[in-house]
Amino acid sequence: MTEGRRAAAGRTGGKLLADALVAQGVTHAFCVPGESYLDLLDGLYSVRNRLQLVTCRFEAGAVHMAEAYGKLTGKPGVAIVTRGPGACHASIGVHVAFQDSTPLVLLVGQIPVEETDRETFQEVDYRQMFGPLAKWVTQIDDEKRIPELMAHAFDVATSGRPGPVVVAISEEMQKRLSTAPDIGPAEVLPPHPAPDAMDRVMKMLGAAKKPLAVLGGSRWTEQGRADIRDWLLANDLPVSVAFRRMGLFDGTSANYVGDLGVGADGALVAKAKESDLILAIGTRIGEPVSQGYTLLDMAGATPIVHVYPDQAEIGRVYRPALGIVSEVNAFAAAAKAAGAVKKPAWSGWTKELRAARLAQAKPQDYEGPLNLATALQALEKELPPDTIFTTDAGNFATWPNRFMHFSEKQDFLGPTNGAMGYSVPAAIGAKITHPDRTVIAFVGDGGFLMTGQEIATAFHHSVNPIILVFNNQMYGTIRMYQERVYPARVSGTALTNPDFAKFIEAFGGHGEIVETTDELVPAVKRAMASGKPAIVEVRTNPEQVTNRATIADLRAQAAKAAGATEAAQPAQAARTTPAPRRTGPRLR
């Protein structure tokens, strides 16, 4: 068929898919190529001047990069993987996007339709596989429906509570021709607070003496963050952020009181329990924020104003005094317009919570040549005001959370589902999204060797994130729990690591090793000046397993608890009347 006759007959499904991405405003897609979507790859070649295809080394890394793009832009990140093993690898990133409420669209190559249910090569039913992990899962078998289903996928990813959508694309469908027209995004106005919502909020606030705001959620715009900041400051409210949402409020502000998440300051948790009004704005009030569902009474003893874009999440666990279904930026605009309470009764309360935040952020006199708290606080003063930070899961992550003060123009990306291996690919995705901004990744030695090979993607696409690898030669979080429950019985948590500086040098990057407090800032400065992807390996004290306890501390606490238990058992036995001896058969 000649080119002219082919054009008259329509576009291939692969070309339709590529054009559908462009029609939805997609500028970046992150992929690991596979034979199950060769026709889509060919279609993407045709739009290469409008859509950058980022070739990655591992499917989980590709989805983490796309998820970071979604966090930073508020638009769906796009990842493309092949069928079977590729989809399984990608599922980690889908779970991150689901629990983090990040808009994401994952395209998965699929087997030919006529081979369905034969357990053919790499066959997986993606509706079953991704059903619990995604907002919607679909499969396109009819090329005529590509524009329709792709448009709907993007609508679902961004509507209500944002999240991931998985679209399987059958192999032969991508080869067939169709004249179906492209469909662009629909202009949909976001949900706003009900007409009397802010009047009721201000009335409840006026009656409070110990209010606490908790900011969370996704898809905040720069204007929305500014609006909610202005309202919170106008009312002199103490402001905390949900787990790994430090980028939502200026940590240097006199109203910032810390993060409510894993490793939260005990003083903040205690004060939150004293609060007489919780303003939960954008957060689901999930397990990390609620401290394992212990922070608040589920029946509503502490009044909660819960603002969330999806009604199904309001009251899901905690019954609010007032639920407001609203997109977060729309609520922020309405709140700013509502003004301030005339005579707030909580100025002393706000100062008290801020003082507790500053007290916990004061570096302790940690043993060893490297005081990580002091080093991180020195580093924060040297970084650009628009730095993007990414973090992995692990105990190391509680150090920057506790001791650093992230400022207003900075972004902080982290997996609220606790996925290891997130930080390095997220940093690369962030740098590809914003090449002019400095990107700093925090990652442990365990997490780095899960997805650290993605540093090759940074070289391939000429971006230069700076990776801080905190090396304590163990899976630190699991070791911490292990020492609490089974002290001195170390099993499965020790690690053997490479020289991480030489690892990056093998790619042609910049490597540094830091072992003392004063070495961190100069090392990061040299890394930034190099203009290359860089790793700064920070060798931490393995004994200092958390920023609040050593391994020796945990073992002592476990021994004390065991002693108390043993002492209580004889006393309990003495108080118990022996049961009469049975002479007949036991009844079950």
Would you kindly provide a brief summary of this structure?
The protein starts with a helix and ends in a 13-residue tail after the last helix.
Written description of the protein model:
Belongs to the TPP enzyme family. Residues 392-538 form the Thiamine pyrophosphate enzyme TPP-binding domain. InterPro entries: DHS-like_NAD/FAD-binding_dom, THDP-binding, Thiamin_PyroP_enz_cen_dom, Thiamin_PyroP_enz_TPP-bd_dom, TPP-bd_CS, TPP_enz, TPP_enzyme_TPP-bd. It comes from Neoroseomonas terrae. The protein has 588 residues and is α/β, with parallel strands linked by helices. The protein has 3 domains: 8-178, 3-Layer(aba) Sandwich (Rossmann fold); 197-360, TPP-binding domain (Rossmann fold, 3-Layer(aba) Sandwich); 372-539, 3-Layer(aba) Sandwich (Rossmann fold). 39% of the residues lie in helices and 16% in strands. The chain has 21 helices and 20 strands. It has a 6-stranded parallel sheet with strand order 3-2-4-5-7-6, sandwiched between helices. Strands 11-10-9-12-13-14 form a 6-stranded parallel sheet, with helices on both faces. It has a 6-stranded parallel sheet with strand order 16-15-17-18-20-19, with helices on both faces. Strand 6, helix 7 and strand 7 form a beta-alpha-beta unit. The longest helix has 25 residues, at 551-575. Mean pLDDT is 94; it is low at 1-6 and 571-588.
